[in-house]
Write a structure and sequence with these properties.
Shape: globular
CATH superfamily: Deoxyuridine triphosphatase (dUTPase)
Number of domains: 1
Protein name: Deoxycytidine triphosphate deaminase
Largest sheet: 9 strands, antiparallel
Distance between the termini: 4 Å
Order of helices and strands: EHEHEEEEEEHEEEEE
Strand content: 35-45%
Radius of gyration: 16 Å
CATH architecture: Distorted Sandwich
Number of strands: 13
Structural class: mainly beta
Length: 152
């Protein structure tokens, strides 16, 4: 098994915001498109017949001036879900690894990492994360996670 290099990563990725900035040697930075807060409890059971996703509410980014191109999410302490701009395709025999971007980690964000197999739906890539007590401000299209593709 080996990590695909950036040019190969691009063959499996769509909707990249700014290729020169996002493309690294062995990974691609993922950018935030939407953020949801969790507002209702989910349900888990052993067999899955009683599974319910946690309910969420879309958070509208706020522009700091009328001529600003992008808005900011002003997040308080809590648990959220980030949806990324980028999408994946043609992932046969490829594992997907998604982890928190170094800048997000240094901003105090805590997030799960994800490993997706080819049988997972990757139409919409997301990651759940926690904002610390002091909160965190995140700009639209911020680089928030890193994507690695692992081939056989």
């Amino acid at each position: 098994m080996f990590l695909l290099e950036s040019d190969e990563l691009l063959e499996h990725t769509s909707n990249i915001v700014h290729e020169d900035t996002q493309k690294q040697k062995l990974n691609l930075d993922l950018t935030i498109s939407k953020i949801f807060s969790f507002t209702e409890a989910g349900s888990l059971d052993f067999g899955g017949s009683e599974f319910e996703e946690a309910g969420g509410k879309y958070i509208e980014p706020v522009k700091q001036s009328t001529n600003a191109d992008y808005g900011w999410w002003i997040l308080k302490e809590g648990t959220y879900q980030a949806i990324f701009n980028e999408s994946l395709h043609n992932l046969e025999d490829t594992l997907v690894a998604i982890s928190l971007h170094e800048h997000a980690s240094k901003a105090g964000i805590i997030a799960n990492s994800r490993i997706l197999t080819p049988d997972h739906s990757v139409d919409e890539i997301s990651i759940n994360f926690q904002v610390p007590t002091n909160g965190c401000n995140i700009k639209e299209n911020a680089r928030f996670a890193t994507l690695h593709l692992i081939a056989d």
